Amino acid sequence: MLSPTLLRQFLMAIVGVAGIVGAVMAGVTRDDAFTAADRMQKWAWVAILVVSGIACLSGLGFLGLIGCVFIGVYFFDVRPQINNILRGNYGW
């Protein structure tokens, strides 16, 4: 049976890898897309995602949980808006 600690570490590892993947995705996205989306600059998001991914992968406890929140904000708020702008969907 899977212990709660092992399950938490497994989930944090998955989110940490997603953070590193998100950093790569943000790194290859055009700079002006972040400006058009009225978000922080591209390299700020890359740095946030790399640090958050490392915090999740290294098991830093509370800092890892904060990193999970930043990774979630990128994937569920920032990235969809940037994708809509890059595709030309400007609607509400």
From TrEMBL:
Transmembrane portions of the chain: 6-28, 43-76
Sorted UniProt keywords: Membrane, Transmembrane, Transmembrane helix
Species, as recorded: Corynebacterium meitnerae
Protein name: DUF2516 family protein
